[in-house]
Design goal:
mainly beta; seven-stranded mixed β-sheet; globular
């Protein structure tokens, strides 16, 4: 059972930055893909960014050029650097890890961007 612990959410003004972090209890040797989803009130959960064990990244179009996902293999941690934040980025952000036969989730961290 993998546990994911997120940190770094908060309140920021439009144009500001936040950095989310997610520590995984899984094996550092697993090289599972990891990523971030978000869910705004009344909307479906959507994939924001993902990174494979080999470092290949993928972003949803609306965050390209503003968000950067990275991973620290030594600490089994994934980060999401969010710059030029917009009110539309307001949501609960969830860390996820794709295991061999299931997907693991963190508890979520709130990101609120004020206009």
């Amino acid at each position: 059972q993998v546990q994911l612990v997120e940190s770094g959410g908060g309140l920021v003004q439009a144009g500001g930055s936040l950095r989310l972090s997610c520590a995984s209890s899984g094996s550092m040797l697993s090289l599972n893909a990891m990523g971030w989803y978000r869910q705004a009130p009344g909307k479906q959960r959507e994939l924001v960014a993902a990174i494979t064990g080999g470092g290949i990244t993928n972003y949803r179009d609306s965050v390209k050029g503003r968000f950067t996902i990275s991973r620290d293999k030594a600490k089994n941690t994934v980060h999401l650097q969010m710059n030029s934040l917009e009110p539309e980025d307001t949501a609960v952000y969830y860390c996820t890890e794709w295991g061999d036969d299931r997907q693991f989730w963190g508890q979520g961290t709130q990101v609120t961007v004020s206009s």
